[in-house]
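Posting for a labmate who doesn't have an account.
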Amino acid sequence: MPPPLAGVLPQPSPWDGLWASFYGGIAEEVMTRLGMATVLAWVMARWLGRRAALAVGIAGSALLFGALHLPAAAQVWPLTALVVARTFVLIAVLAALFGAAYVRHGLEHAIVTQPTSCCTWPCRR
């Protein structure tokens, strides 16, 4: 990774991280899973079967989800090819898992899964 733009990565307080996780769990899941994934699957269901349409919906919303995180990455690092690829891959993989939770168990599970992953991510370091 290139060095951060400000020289030091921002260190939000634990409360800021907690509130941001809840925002992400609710707002991002409603916009990308309930909105984008459902619309993509509905449109594609005419040409593809139900399962394939759901897969396209999850994949398309996962890519959108990765793209929506690029402005946040740009505030920390210069947008090099490595930063863009890293952001897309990490976010898209998680978004695909959240999308699978949405399809299999409903929006509530996707909403709970996302902040849970955000809150446990620092524990893995």
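Reply:
Got it, the structure tokens are right above this. The chain is about 75% helix and 0% strand.
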